[in-house]
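Recap from last week: sequence in, structure out.
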Amino acid sequence: MNEVDPSSLPEAASSSSEARVAGAAGHPLADDCAALPDCATSTGNADETLKALPAVDAPGVSDAQPQAGQAEQASAPGRKASTGWTSSAQSLLMTIVIAVFVITFAVQAFQIPSESMERTLLVGDYLLVDKLHYGPSGIWDFLMPYRPIRRGDVIVFRYPVKPSEHFVKRVIGLPGDRVRLERKRVYVDGKPLTEPYVHLHRGSFEEFRDNFPASPRLYDEVTASWFLQMRTLVRDGELVVPADSYFVLGDNRDNSLDSRYWGLVPRKNVIGRPLLIYWSAEAAGGADSAEAAPQNGKLSSLRPVFERWLGIRWGRILRLVE
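Predicted structure tokens:
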């Protein structure tokens, strides 16, 4: 049933197609349609035909239509408000779902709390970790950026001794590699490893740390379980890395608790690879920042702001981790 705008018809005209047909049939001039010059051409369009005919009384119909239109217009703001609220809720829900998916499967943020990876990573660096980088190989390799873990990669992993904690170190030994340290120099399969990223403290020397594993004695930092396992993996003064495991070291080689002290990293513990440093700031409360900020008075409340602002390492923000 076609609707007609009430304002365009006389008050007594009906908007329904049935009223139009009845009105046309009952009109006094309907029988003389053939005699009218425009009658034959106007019948091709029902709306034009009805508009051209004189008004025919249709009691009760014309009064109901404006009332229905007014009710519809009155309810329109409520429907718009309801639709806007529903749309906003859907957008918020979709944002939350996408964020959870990204954090769970794609990217996760971490903060560097220790000096073990200096100067590659500093205390106060905030990282975005690519969790898809070391995905399992398979039919999706041509679509996803998966690749195996390589020697020299910086990885984030669950600490084997306490899996609730996360560590970041550099991979030195792959499964099957024979690893040893000789006066702080790393050898893999008998060949010295080139390490431009290593930070060493000259003048310090520790037998177990710097000639690993030549002196497999139980030190305070060495876990008992690793001490027992290490003795089964040493062959001719070299540590043989077992399958599905990785030997990792910190770049700050003299100040790092790593595979020398607590053991190997199982493949299942690897979370991903640091992608970039999205923020970097020195820890508040350092000597320089304490001198720069007021010690008391009204400006003392601004001290944390000054410390944080002055401690921002602008040159490290958005730097790729290598």
